Amino acid sequence: MFMAVGLPGLAADVTGNWNGKVSTPKGDFPIAFSFKANGSKLEGTMLGTDGASFPIDEGKIEGDKLTFSVTLNYPGKSLQRTYKGALNGDEIHFTVDASGQVSEFTVKRAK
């Protein structure tokens, strides 16, 4: 008989929509993610603070941790951001690195 006790390799179920806000020097802005977990692979999109949708790249889920990157493409420039998140119930606490500038925010599962 197989018992599923303490299996740290199982990926958390983050499939669905997640919403939050990001605090910046210019004020608070909404941010949203739509995730689809496929085993340990994370797919989806990010809705940026300006309302544009961006695909996530290199998405991975390991236990309750998720990582991915997003490249924000605007006319004349391209900005890559790396996200590291920790799932806790219906919240994900993110740390994002944008060219060496690190910030944090939390999103909640949309219901």
Helix and strand layout, with pairings?
Layout: E1 16-24, E2 27-38, E3 41-47, E4 53-62, E5 65-74, E6 77-88, E7 91-98, E8 101-109
Antiparallel strand pairs: 1-2, 1-8, 2-3, 3-4, 4-5, 5-6, 6-7, 7-8
Give a written overview of the molecule.
This protein is an all-beta fold. It has a single domain, classed as Quinohemoprotein amine dehydrogenase alpha subunit, domain 2 (Lipocalin), CATH 2.40.128.120. 0% of the residues lie in helices and 69% in strands. The chain has an eight-stranded antiparallel barrel with strand order 1-2-3-4-5-6-7-8.
From the structure above, extract its key features.
mainly beta; Lipocalin; 8 strands; 69% strand
- Oligomer state of the chains in this structure: single chain
The SSE order reads: EEEEEEEE
- Strand arrangement within the widest β-sheet reads 1-2-3-4-5-6-7-8
Tell me roughly what share of residues is in helical segments.
under 10%
The CATH top-level class label: Mainly Beta
Largest sheet, strands/sense/barrel: 8 strands, antiparallel, barrel
Number of helices: 0
Number of strands: 8
The domain count comes to 1
Name the CATH architecture. Answer: Beta Barrel
The CATH H-level superfamily is Quinohemoprotein amine dehydrogenase alpha subunit, domain 2
Mean pLDDT across every amino acid position? 86
Q: Which fold name fills CATH's third level, the topology?
A: Lipocalin
Q: Low-confidence parts, pLDDT < 50 over ≥5 residues?
A: 1-8
SS class:
mainly beta
Name the beta content range: over 45%
Please give the alpha-carbon distance between the first and last residues. Answer: 36 Å
Taking Cα atoms only, what radius of gyration do you get, to the nearest Å? Answer: 15 Å
Q: Report the principal-axis shape.
A: globular
